[in-house]
Recover the amino acids of this structure.
């Protein structure tokens, strides 16, 4: 039985995802039904893919940052900044390409700022990115001048958040393209190896000739860019920029997606596919809780409880227990086999 | 050793880590009213022995007696209660607290369940008075110099423990005047009848303060001798040992000495690290660097490889001056550097043997030009075979390999970049005998194929065996350059042991 490596390595995430989706199916019988209306796919599963776009995008950048033993707390705030930039550009009459280019540039600049603090000034990542996390919403409010900047009359930008292409919602298409690009760039070049090496041992990497500062700068820049794309989608989705609430707490969901996806916060080996699954697991949870119709005050508690269970299952202690269990079973199997051999 | 009963007596103590022996059947005796220096190079077993005495490690075999009673300290706190206190090089006190709080941390005098600050300050003043230290005990410790912090640390250790005091490189960050002040305190404690174990790399200080010396090497006891009348040269040879040098003596081609140097250092130095020095290294030449720990050996290598920036002097490669501001610059010149501390500076532990081997080459090519998987595997397999790297699998994480095999992987990492100048810092430390001989053979082989090498080693016999020239460092200064017939362990040890700048043997 030839199971592809990628499936074998991500078995725990696949199992969790399947279990949560199955539970959703039990809670809401129509969960798996998908239909086409107005040339666009509709259904709860599509909704998971669609609503999950921001966290998925954030998780892609976050994975690279965490692989270098860093963390980026500013991603939610960068979403708010970029949403504000996009809204103010489009309402000032700029074209869609100019608005998108300007928004992505601002996100990239935010990432470079974080990267410079971490790579050039050697500030601890958690503190360095905390600065923008705190300041970011203030910056976003300055841009929107304290109001929710709406753009109901700009269908071209709204299309990014709620349009569809090839029957799929635009956000889904965007995150899938970004994910494929990220995986190709990281794994088809030597970047993945160098990022992992810096995460494991930055000093040894630098002494071996790796340009650690540039690579650190690059991963934070990438994270800023991913946050920017997520910010544009979130703003386009609600047809406005809400400086206070856009991307609020999403940095936590993104970090969680990375951890659930199997990348250690200690840096080193990382898996973008794992993080994507982590993001989908989180979104399935969110959707499932909504569909179940619990009073909203329970949502966060239920989510926390389920995530706790996932993390306990993945914890080194239970992994060791599992490995022990498997090893025992294997010895038993080997013993029976050898006995069979002997019998023959 | 007239006392009937020694204060502290260690008998036949052994300790191994993961099957590697760190200490083998070591005896050590400390008398009351004695300052006993414990000497040895890195990895000699000094810190293992100290950690066993102070309860940080459990011994595998042997016994430790305090005033004739066998003790089994469970941990450092337990040892302190028994009477054994330790002061480390890095003062481990809390500099944001006051002097008095530091002295009484964890055992503050109480009044109605609260700390009696007045009583604590009064007792602190009384304690420090006995050391002739009249300072404001209510001021934060950080306000005082390292030397005074050191004395406070000693006062605390003595007040808690009071029988045996271990001083682990207490003078490493002190200036001459502060060392005197510290030694006055040590002499006073000796007069009070305490036993003091003194660890230092500075031989002058050992001669000044110690009554007797115990030398360890490779986890074994070499000897315990009184300081009075001990010849310095003999002491150095006890510390460094002598190996058979005839076995590996390399024949040196006299024509290489005339060729133009590949790398030349002129007045290269960095304050506090290494005084300015001149050195030429030619192709097909191994230049050895000898000296005790802390003599500036590693610091020199770090300047040459751009890890630290020199504040004086120049480095020229093939006649052209190079601004050696980072390892990348050095690597671009065809330099390679195997560091002394493999774990923190060398291996990338979680990555596989394959990835570690291709690592420097990949870093040099840049991220845009990845080596394909098959190229990586070919390279890895070639070096695993050529250097006989023992691993079950090229995909095994390097952290699971033995020290010798990790060192070979690091050599492979650099050889894969095809360097013209290779710097090796302690290439044979902490590796097994078989790998040891192979690495020496490799050094000779690389040199004969025209590479220029700079090798730092504490193994003098080894260094004598393969070096074309040997530079001797002492106290962060280059004190001698040995060539031709002068290259011998005797000459190296004389150069290290010599007092003052004259060229005569002690």
């Amino acid at each position: 039985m030839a199971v592809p490596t990628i499936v074998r390595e991500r078995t725990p995430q696949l199992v969790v995802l399947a279990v949560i989706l199955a539970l959703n199916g039990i809670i809401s019988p129509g969960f798996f039904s998908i239909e086409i209306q107005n040339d666009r796919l509709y259904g709860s599963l599509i909704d998971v893919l669609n609503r999950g776009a921001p966290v998925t995008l954030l998780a892609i950048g976050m994975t690279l940052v965490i692989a270098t033993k860093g963390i980026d707390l500013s991603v939610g705030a960068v979403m708010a900044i970029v949403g504000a930039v996009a809204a103010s550009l489009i309402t000032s009459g700029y074209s869609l390409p100019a608005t998108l280019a300007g928004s992505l540039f601002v996100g990239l600049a935010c990432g470079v700022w974080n990267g410079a603090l971490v790579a050039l000034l050697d500030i601890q990542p958690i503190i360095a990115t905390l600065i923008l996390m705190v300041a970011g919403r203030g910056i976003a409010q300055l841009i929107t001048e304290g109001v929710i900047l709406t753009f109901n009359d700009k269908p071209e930008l709204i299309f990014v958040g709620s349009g569809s292409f090839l029957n799929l919602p635009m956000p889904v298409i965007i995150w899938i393209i970004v994910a494929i690009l990220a995986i190709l760039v990281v794994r088809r070049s030597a970047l993945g190896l160098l990022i992992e090496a810096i995460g494991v041992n930055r000093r040894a990497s630098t002494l071996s000739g790796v340009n650690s500062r540039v690579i650190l700068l690059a991963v934070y820049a990438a994270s800023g860019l991913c946050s920017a794309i997520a910010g544009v989608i979130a703003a386009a989705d609600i047809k406005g920029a809400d400086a206070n609430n856009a991307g609020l707490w999403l940095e936590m969901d993104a970090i969680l997606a990375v951890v659930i996806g199997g990348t250690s916060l200690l840096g080193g080996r990382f898996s973008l596919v794992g993080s994507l699954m982590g993001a989908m697991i989180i979104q399935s949870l969110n959707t499932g809780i909504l569909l179940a119709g619990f009073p909203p005050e329970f949502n966060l508690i239920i989510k926390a409880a389920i995530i706790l269970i996932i993390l306990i299952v993945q914890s080194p202690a239970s992994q060791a227990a599992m490995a022990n269990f498997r090893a025992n079973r294997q010895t038993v199997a080997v013993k029976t086999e050898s006995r069979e051999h002997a019998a023959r | 050793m007239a006392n009937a009963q020694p204060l502290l007596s260690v008998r036949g103590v052994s300790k191994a880590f993961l099957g590697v022996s760190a200490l083998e059947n070591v005896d050590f005796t400390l008398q009351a009213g004695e300052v006993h220096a414990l000497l040895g190079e890195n990895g000699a077993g000094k810190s293992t022995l100290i950690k066993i005495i102070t309860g940080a490690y459990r011994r595998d075999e042997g016994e430790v007696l305090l005033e004739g009673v066998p003790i089994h300290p469970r941990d450092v706190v337990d040892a302190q209660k028994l009477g054994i206190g330790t002061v480390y090089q890095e003062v481990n006190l809390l500099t944001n607290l006051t002097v008095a709080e530091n002295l009484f941390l964890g055992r503050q005098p109480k009044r109605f369940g609260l700390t009696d600050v007045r009583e604590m300050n009064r007792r602190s003043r009384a304690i420090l008075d006995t050391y002739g230290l009249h300072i404001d005990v209510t001021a934060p410790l950080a306000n005082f110099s390292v030397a005074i912090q050191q004395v406070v640390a000693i006062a605390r250790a003595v007040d808690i423990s009071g029988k045996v005091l271990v001083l682990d490189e207490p003078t490493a960050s002190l200036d001459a005047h502060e060392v005197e002040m510290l030694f006055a305190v040590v002499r006073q404690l000796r007069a009070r009848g305490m036993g003091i174990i003194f660890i230092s790399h500075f031989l002058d200080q050992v001669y000044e303060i110690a009554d007797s010396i115990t030398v360890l090497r490779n986890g074994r006891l070499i000897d315990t001798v009184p300081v009075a009348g001990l010849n310095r040269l003999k002491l150095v040879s006890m510390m460094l040992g002598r190996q058979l040098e005839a076995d590996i003596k390399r024949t040196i081609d006299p024509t290489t000495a005339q060729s133009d140097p590949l790398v030349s250092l002129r007045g290269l130095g960095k304050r506090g690290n290494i005084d300015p020095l001149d050195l030429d290294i030619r192709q097909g030449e191994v230049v050895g660097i000898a000296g005790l720990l802390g003599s500036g050996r590693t610091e020199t290598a770090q300047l040459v490889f751009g890890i630290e920036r020199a504040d004086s002097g120049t480095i020229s490669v093939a006649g052209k001056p190079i601004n050696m501001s980072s390892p990348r610059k050095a690597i671009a010149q065809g330099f390679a550097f195997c560091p002394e501390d493999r774990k923190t500076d060398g291996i990338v532990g979680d990555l596989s043997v394959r990835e570690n081997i291709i690592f420097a080459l990949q870093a040099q090519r840049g991220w845009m030009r990845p080596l394909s998987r098959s190229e990586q595997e070919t390279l890895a397999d070639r070096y695993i075979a050529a250097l006989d790297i023992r691993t079950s699998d090229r995909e095994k994480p390097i952290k699971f390999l033995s020290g010798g095999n990790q060192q070979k992987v690091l050599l492979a990492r650099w050889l894969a970049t095809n360097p013209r100048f290779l710097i090796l810092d302690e290439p044979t430390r902490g590796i097994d005998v078989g790998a040891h001989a192979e690495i020496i053979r490799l050094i000779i082989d690389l040199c004969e194929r025209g590479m220029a090498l700079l090798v730092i080693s504490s193994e003098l016999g080894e260094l004598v065996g393969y070096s074309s020239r040997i530079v001797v460092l002492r106290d962060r200064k280059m004190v001698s350059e040995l060539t031709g017939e002068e290259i011998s362990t005797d000459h190296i040890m004389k150069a290290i042991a010599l007092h003052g700048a004259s060229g005569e043997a002690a």
In short: The first strand of chain A starts at residue 35 and ends at 37. The CA atoms of residues 180 and 273 of chain A lie 10 Å apart. The two ends of chain A are 26 Å apart (CA to CA). The longest helix of chain A spans residues 316-343.
